[in-house]
Amino acid sequence: MSRSLASLAGAAVLASALPLLSTPAVAASDHSFHRVATYPVFQNAPAGVPASAETVAEISAVSDDGRTLVHTDALGKRIGFLDISDPSAPRGDGSLSLEELGDADDQPTSVSVVGKYVLVVVDTSASFTDPSGRLDVVRLSDGTRVRSIDLGGQPDSIALSKDRSVAAVAMENQRDEDAAPAGGKEGDLPQAPGGFVQLVDLEGAPADWTPRRVDLPADVLAAAGMAAPTDPEPEYVAFNSKGTLAVTLQENNGVVLIDSASGRIEKAFSAGSVALEGVDVTKDGAISLTDSVAAVPREPDAIAWVGDDHLATANEGDWKGGTRGWTVFDTDGDVVWDAGNTFERLAVKHGLHNDDRAAKKGAEPEGLAVAEYDGTPYAFVGSERSNFVAVYDVSDPAKPEYVQVMPTTNGPEGLLPIPSRGLFAVSSETDDAEAGVRATVGLYAWKPGKAAFPSIVSDEKDGAPIGWQALGALTADTKSATTLWTAADKVIKQATLYRVDVAGHPARITDSVPVTEAGSPVELDIEGLFQRPQGGFWIASEGAKGGGNELVRTNGAGVVQERVSLPTEVTSKLGAQGLEGVTATTDRDGEHVWFVLQRPLAGEDVARIGRYDVSDRSFAWFGYELQTPLRGSGDWVGLSEITAVDDDTFAVIERDKLNGPKARTKHISTFTVPQGSGKDLPTVEKRLAIDVLPALRATHGWTQEKLEGFTIAKDGSLYGVTDNDGLKDATGETVFLRLGKATTTGLRLSATRAAYAKKRLTAVVTLGGLATAGVVEIRDGNRVLTRVRVTDGKATVTLPRLAVGRHRLTARFTGAALGTSSVSTPVTVTVVKATSRTALKATKRGSTVKVVATVRAAGHVPTGKVRFVAGSKVLKTVTLRKGRAVATVRVRGAKQKIRAIYLGSARTKGSTAS
Questions:
Q1: Alpha-carbon distances of 542 from 24, 484, 506, 529, rounded to whole Å
Q2: Which residues belong to any copy of the Bacterial Ig-like domain (predicted)?
């Protein structure tokens, strides 16, 4: 029944030889998981606990109705409750301190919910050699403990059987990483006492619930090839529908299957080892998927059943191993599928690769869950160090199909499917108030449509996804409206430019261009990038100190052609936050390079905008007054980008350093350069063009701090990007923003139906985006009706008379040098014929009568003809002249009725006078 490590060697080779991640297969469902809320759990801390206190969410469970989520908080020594009745607006519902139930040092390790009770697993250990713990049974409705069960050791995870009749607790009795067993090194196994499993029968009332201890015999584990059979250290437990319990022994690199009814061990097997190719195992500021890993043990953490006959493990690794992926086994312990290097490559593709962990366990898959949504089973695998959950269709356990990546906050620990409500929850354990990285519960809804994340990914190059991180600069391509360029900052040691295709969603990094000089790689902290119409790029490179800030010009292949240092009178007053953006304009005086310094120089109270005139190598300076930072928060506000709108108008990013719910200032503002040379630091007059904060919050994730890149594409489309800081004190999520057009033009008419010339139509023209002033044409089809100058974003104009008929009117902003023209949505107006009034006067002159018909209409003098009629006889037809028709007609008898009939025209309706 047992198998040795040697017998698994073939499985290890097979796993490492699986196909690399290329274009992933996507499940046929039209649904996906959409993030709908991210709740910072510190907001639910008890009264009196400061917001800066560490408060985490590790393992979560949910009530039977799916409306109350319960999570552990080991740092806070409590469990928290969230009302998720409205998943888009979760609400803190209080917490329960374990100090009230036991001791101030008690820590919850796991939690589950059965009916009206919360099962809280509590570690009460005095030391590693004296482990202890209990299972508290707490009433969900009011947090009252109704029972406490001694577990006889230090517990880790808990799971419920499918029929909810049995709870299983992994009694880890974890090792002391600073202790060395006889003949071993620090952290080695074995370390007594060994762990075991507790089964708790949940029949009847909690007072009747009884625990059953299941030991894991050393001879059984030894026969299965476990590393230290006398010290099992069970980690994670999971039930299938038949009542079989799967237990991972992480440090022992093994799995044990237990019949929960009898407590009998049915199977024990080693998880085996994996050798990897095409991964990054060096912490060196480079994402190079060319390294290899010799066969190392999987050392699985979380485990879940795929049906009743297969098991999936997240191979986090511990003291000896970790294979950067996950595996599907059958119940005999045979590998039927292994992720190989593909899990790590998902991190790279999505900009989530954590170089700080490259030399250890990479993306470090830790959590794993399996659940059905709309009849399809999905596996969810959480990356502890790269902050994402990968979703796979496991309809065929031997051929999992990648579906999507869900972004999380830092350290996603607990993965909780809630299929009854079409929800999925992720609880994250990393909390650092000083860095603005807080633990959260994230909620995702299973619903139609394509998820918003990712907004940018990379294509493959040379058989592997292009490695990217920390996109702190953005520029338009001079030839293609669907191409942009971006760059990594110093997170990527080798200065690198990236080509971005924005034609579809998500945007795609299609190529990378290394920056070189004299044939060697160059290290730059690229914070600004501009593609020159003349060819090549300008780069703004921020230095660690003032003198390190410089403007760098390259050719189109990224080869450095020129370096421009800032004047010493500036760099001597410049701190660590220097150059942050670059753009350029060209006029009859030559090329002018514009740049921003992020924060004021020492002794100044405005940030600086600089201009470098290439022809004479001179500098000019302008001041920019920054927003006020949030007092008492350690906040500051600075500039992060500059983009030319035209030769005299520029857009800048102005942002604070706050993230999450504290974020306030994420602005794109514009200004026009004041007249003068710029030698006396004239202050520009800024105007808020776009508040980007709503767009960042619309992701329903952790609001990102570093809005750093902005550009105007060739067709006037606006794009922005956030710098993910390479996951250092950040969630690692990159938000690529599509912010509309550089200008927007609106047109509103006083009426959409009018009589000809009765009243002049007025048109209200509005400008938005990056423009509030300029010339706007109002057009009838292709014909220009009038031109109006817009100031302060609005103008009202009286239109020329429109001919009778339907007219499709638009307002077109004529734009500026960078193609920022825009056209309004068409407005259709219908002009109908004007109503006329005809009056008749007659003067008898013997046998003739002089008749005079006068035709009037609002706003114009009617034209056309008048017919004079006696009875049914037409006496005469006369053309109107200046609105009058005069004729002399003969009459018979003393009395005769004469009428004047105006026949109308193309503009005016006819009318009759008696």
A1: 38, 21, 29, 12
A2: 758-831, 842-914
